[in-house]
From TrEMBL:
Keyword list, A-Z: Hydrolase
Keyword Magnesium: no
Highest taxon of source: Bacteria
Hydrolase among keywords: yes
Protein name: HAD family hydrolase
One Gene Ontology biological process: DNA repair
Organism: Skermanella stibiiresistens SB22
Entry GO CC: cytosol
Molecular functions per Gene Ontology: phosphoglycolate phosphatase activity
Amino acid sequence: MSLSVSKRLRLALFDCDGTLVDSQFAIVAAMNAAFVGMGLPAPDAASVRRIVGLPLVHAIAVLHPSGQERLHRALADRYKLAFADARNRGVHDEPLFPGIREALAAIEDAGLLLGVATGKSRRGLVATLDHHGLLDRFTTLQTSDTGPGKPHPDMVFRALADTGVDAADTIVIGDTSFDMLMAGSARAGAVGVAWGYHETAELTKAGALRICQTADELPAAILALLDRETADQAQWVK
C-alpha cells in the first residue's frame, strides 16, 4: 500500500486594504470629503473602517442608510474623485503592513500562486501594487468592478477560473468578516489577520480557520491548512 498524492496548483488569495496595506487614513479622508462635499455630516472613522472591503456603493449605503441609491452613487463618485486627487497630489498613503513583502516572497517560494480579491477598483488596486513594486507577483487580480463584491464568492470563483486552482487548494487571507464569509461560500480555506479593521473574534465567528497576529506567521499558517486539505483528500492505493 502506498499513499498517492498528486501535485496540484495552490493559491493564496489576499485581500488588499487592511491586509496587505494600511489604507484606513486615505479611505477615511476620501469618505469624509465625499460626505462633506454633498452637505452631509462626515461619518466617524470607526464606522468607515467597519465597511472597508464592501463594494463602494454598498459601503456608502451602510454608512448612510436613509439615503436613496441615487445619492449613494453620487457619494461614491465623489469618493473616487477625492481618493484619486489625494494620490495625484502625493498625499495618498497606503503603506505595506510590516513583514508583508517578506511573507509574500516566502509563500511564493513555497510554490503557491498569489492573487488578490479586493473591494478596491481595479485601477486603484493596480496603482497600489505597482507603487510597492508588487504588481508582477500576483497571478490574478479580482475586484468588484465587474461583478458582485464581498461577501459574495464571485471573486474567488473568478480567481479559481483564472488560475486553474481548485477551491480546496485555495486559502483566502483577509482582515474582515466579509473575507471569511466569501471564502466559506466558495469552499476555500480562510486565514484571518489581526492587524486589520475587524476584531479577531468576528473573523473566527465568520469562518477563519487560523488567525495570524503578525505577517511572518502567514506562510506557515497557509501551508498548514493546505497540507491538511491534501491529507484529507489523499487516497490509499495498492
